Amino acid sequence: MKNIIALSFIVSFLLASSCTNKQPERSAVFDYTHDSLKVKTDSVPVELRDSLLSRILDIPEVKKYSEYLEKETSGKQGATAFIDPANNTEQRYTVNVGLSSEGRFDTVYIFYVDKRSGDISVLHQPSGQDYPLSEWQKRYERYMNGEKDAFSSE
Fold first, then answer.
1. What pTM was estimated for this model as a whole?
2. DSSP category for residue 50
3. Residue 11 lies in a domain
């Protein structure tokens, strides 16, 4: 009889605690393929809205990269973006963009989004330097046009 009461108590406790503990809400990881967003789920803090990822995937350089991936994979894969909770700070979100494949993620771009202003900056990975998006785009274009020192300090 004591075992039944103990078991009933444990089951009641588990049921009560599962009802009161909220499950973490989920945000989305987007796979940008065929001019549409395919949502893949990934646990991230609720305040990270899907619109943040959409903004990043709308950046022309990201679209071009996605088109390249789509061509290389015969339309099976586009650029994937996810919010990296491990690198978020009180001031900004970190969004990685790259190629997601079997069990791994190859980061091509790292974007930072200011939590207050919404301003986007980009990490130039070889130098470790952050650039405001418009400045990075100018330098990136120069680099893609053959100016190999486009990201060197001025």
1. 0.69
2. H
3. no
